[in-house]
């Protein structure tokens, strides 16, 4: 089998329903107690369509524990959300240091035997202030060490280009028939 054959089999199933592909096992299929062959019975452009197909199989009393939705052709998208500078890095560091500082201070205050309520609130406030200060300092140091190589903030998202509904080989024909009859 050449490297092009699995790609052809996958492209033959995009947008098709009720027809099994030539590929018997889809990469990324969960390895469970039944590590047997699986077949792609349908492929969709978005997750909602694949989810609707599995939901329809469930409504038709199909054994859905033998079904998996597998995202294929992953792509990484890094969305830039803003410019990074010294004040922003200090603010982000302070925010990330304040919460753990407050929690640690509160925990120490709870174990005070004399007056746990007052001590826990007071130590939580002290922890918040000290944690924010330490976090801001660390944020500034980390930003300064980058020396302008990454002067932006971003969020990274991984998203598949298509979603395949794969089914154990023994019940693939039944799943394909049910989806074809349902028109999904």
Automatic annotation (TrEMBL):
Q: Where is this region: Disordered?
A: 1-37
* Keywords, sorted A to Z: Membrane, Transmembrane, Transmembrane helix
InterPro entries assigned to the protein according to its UniProt record, in alphabetical order:
GSP17M-like_dom
Q: Where is the General stress protein 17M-like domain?
A: 40-107
The residue ranges crossing the membrane are 93-114, 120-144
**Keyword set includes Cytoplasm:** no
Chloroplast as a keyword of this entry, yes or no, is no
Q: What is this protein called?
A: General stress protein 17M-like domain-containing protein
Q: Which organism is it from?
A: Pseudonocardia dioxanivorans (strain ATCC 55486 / DSM 44775 / JCM 13855 / CB1190)
Q: What is the lineage of its organism?
A: Bacteria, Bacillati, Actinomycetota, Actinomycetes, Pseudonocardiales
